[in-house]
Amino acid sequence: MTVTIDQVRSAAAALDGSVALTPVVAAPKLAQMTGAAQVWLKLENLQHSGSFKARGALNRILALNTAERQVGVIAMSAGNHAQGVALHCARLGIPATVVMPRFTPLTKVQRTQAYGATVVLVGETLAEAQQHAHILATEQGLIFIHPYDDPLIIAGQGTVGLELARQVTDADDVIIPIGGGGLAAGMAIALHDAPTPPRLTGVQSASFPTLVRQPVADAPPSPQTLAEGIAVKYPGSLTKPIIDQHFDDVFAVNDTAIEQAIVWLMEEQKIVAEGAGAAPLALLMTQSARFAARKVVLVISGGNIDNRVMASILMRGLVRAGRLARLRIEISDAPGTLARATSLIAEHGGNILEVYHQRLFQDVPVKSAELDVVVEATDSSHVEAMLGALRQAGFPARRLGSMASLPE
């Protein structure tokens, strides 16, 4: 069984007016930073449900007959497919149950429930959630809606490609995140039909490099990733052959690169992206030579990121950029010494956020103390200037903790 361009066009007609026609925006600063000729962002994070998944979900739901709509549906998902199913089932008055793995971010669970779906948290992987969903489907007579391995789902996701082909007519490359492969397969079918088909590149998490064609040297020892939207252990039996046929290559990116891509999108483009949605940017930033002097579209597939995770990522981004640092300063335990050390930091433009004055629980002489301060700075060179001033004044000082950055 395969999916045709006519099926994608039929899906576009069926979805018209019920899903957002998402914009494409230019990112000239990113083009300058990476050496690409031009960069555009296809913003599927602006869908009503926060991701492209609403397209395929609705296309599949619209195919239900009257009896199936009365019985209801069940799906398994790490969050975005769940919200797409829940959103459209609520709108059409169809009962919906969604099985989600326990690692699903709380925000995705809450939003799925807010649409009216019954949420069941089971399993540590999508595969375990899927197994339980099939059990419930059999027991309760529910209609199972697969998140990616279904011709109607693939055709629905392919409507992203139809839109993109009209919005950007001269793209050289399109970078698409791949989990189970529904978006990648659908877009490949749509873009292959374009007058000048662009080169397609897939991106996956290094924790789940199921379609990556070269060995992943830095694959983590445990299958955990910030990009839970593409944390899929096995690609679809329908999607894999389409991807193998139409994609030039598929690469993996690690969570460090994904984190930095999320921060860049937030700070420079004012765009909220989840891990899977930021993965195309992570690939462009780590494989910039592949896209040098080319016109590149990044598919920002979703923006459903947990607020707590986003806050942590942004703070870690400040640390990586040198705008937030923790300094350890050795001082004598005498009146006025603490004030002199902190005054030096202030004189050099540092803003102290936290102070830890340690006498008892560190391996320091009895008449000494260690002072840990968290400071705001403009960049790493500013931090080094503060450290230099402290050392010159007789205070041994060093920076604590460094975080990995992208390769030059």
From TrEMBL:
<dbReference type="GO" id="GO:0004794">
    <property type="term" value="F:threonine deaminase activity"/>
</dbReference>
<comment type="function">
    <text>Catalyzes the anaerobic formation of alpha-ketobutyrate and ammonia from threonine in a two-step reaction. The first step involved a dehydration of threonine and a production of enamine intermediates (aminocrotonate), which tautomerizes to its imine form (iminobutyrate). Both intermediates are unstable and short-lived. The second step is the nonenzymatic hydrolysis of the enamine/imine intermediates to form 2-ketobutyrate and free ammonia. In the low water environment of the cell, the second step is accelerated by RidA.</text>
</comment>
<dbReference type="InterPro" id="IPR036052">
    <property type="entry name" value="TrpB-like_PALP_sf"/>
</dbReference>
<dbReference type="InterPro" id="IPR044561">
    <property type="entry name" value="ACT_ThrD-II-like"/>
</dbReference>
<dbReference type="InterPro" id="IPR005789">
    <property type="entry name" value="Thr_deHydtase_catblc"/>
</dbReference>
<dbReference type="InterPro" id="IPR045865">
    <property type="entry name" value="ACT-like_dom_sf"/>
</dbReference>
<dbReference type="InterPro" id="IPR001926">
    <property type="entry name" value="TrpB-like_PALP"/>
</dbReference>
<keyword id="KW-0100">Branched-chain amino acid biosynthesis</keyword>
<keyword id="KW-0412">Isoleucine biosynthesis</keyword>
<feature type="domain" description="ACT">
    <location>
        <begin position="326"/>
        <end position="405"/>
    </location>
</feature>
<dbReference type="GO" id="GO:0030170">
    <property type="term" value="F:pyridoxal phosphate binding"/>
</dbReference>
<dbReference type="InterPro" id="IPR050147">
    <property type="entry name" value="Ser/Thr_Dehydratase"/>
</dbReference>
<dbReference type="Pfam" id="PF00291">
    <property type="entry name" value="PALP"/>
</dbReference>
<dbReference type="GO" id="GO:0006565">
    <property type="term" value="P:L-serine catabolic process"/>
</dbReference>
<protein>
    <recommendedName>
        <fullName>L-serine dehydratase</fullName>
        <ecNumber>4.3.1.17</ecNumber>
        <ecNumber>4.3.1.19</ecNumber>
    </recommendedName>
</protein>
<dbReference type="GO" id="GO:0009097">
    <property type="term" value="P:isoleucine biosynthetic process"/>
</dbReference>
<comment type="pathway">
    <text>Amino-acid biosynthesis; L-isoleucine biosynthesis; 2-oxobutanoate from L-threonine: step 1/1.</text>
</comment>
<keyword id="KW-0028">Amino-acid biosynthesis</keyword>
<dbReference type="Pfam" id="PF01842">
    <property type="entry name" value="ACT"/>
</dbReference>
<keyword id="KW-0663">Pyridoxal phosphate</keyword>
<dbReference type="InterPro" id="IPR002912">
    <property type="entry name" value="ACT_dom"/>
</dbReference>
<dbReference type="GO" id="GO:0003941">
    <property type="term" value="F:L-serine ammonia-lyase activity"/>
</dbReference>
<dbReference type="GO" id="GO:0006567">
    <property type="term" value="P:L-threonine catabolic process"/>
</dbReference>
<comment type="similarity">
    <text>Belongs to the serine/threonine dehydratase family.</text>
</comment>
<keyword id="KW-0456">Lyase</keyword>
<dbReference type="InterPro" id="IPR000634">
    <property type="entry name" value="Ser/Thr_deHydtase_PyrdxlP-BS"/>
</dbReference>
